[in-house]
Amino acid sequence: MIVLIGGENKSKYPDLIDKMHRLRKEIFHDQLGWKVNVSGDWEIDHYDALHPLYVLSVDEEGNIRGALRLLPTTGLNMLNDTFPELLPDGKRIESPLIWESSRFTIPTTGDRRRDFARMSEATAELGLAMNEIGKEVGLTHIVTVYDAIMHRMLKMADCAGEPLGAPKIIGGVLTYAVIYEIGDELEQRLRAVSGTQADVLPDRSALKLVA
User: What is the CA angle 66-117-87, rounded to 5?
Assistant: First the structure.
């Protein structure tokens, strides 16, 4: 199940917000050893203060199976302001029709694999949700940054983004900036690899707070 948290409804989900930040610390700080900002048991940064839209994949017991956050590229965002070296010289991605996805987080255990291409159920659900959100609010594209392992996995599933420039080593990790075109083609590819035909956004009310 996808839960959308953004704007004025953030105060309605303190437990999920807590679990999300704890999961981000577990993955990015504890496991991957990235130099991220940690406050207690949370990984949280200044982009979280910009009122992003959080997209959470949640199981029936209320556990987070995966998460990401969305921010417009017309303001501060990680690609333009933290990883500008991943873009061609002098280029910035700034458009009201393009949002950025960041802090994509999937637990390393407990996520069922759906097919030979090894895309997890939560990964496919988050991708479908991201595409549906884009269509709902009138986006043309979403940009994101991920590492070479994720790029290879998504290429196997025919769901990789289009690189915006040559990958570069950041923090010892080969890293890509990529762009996805929102639309039916992306949805079809994600549904084909995940095997799901269900509506992943049964509750779209939170989108009224960010659109």
Answer: 65
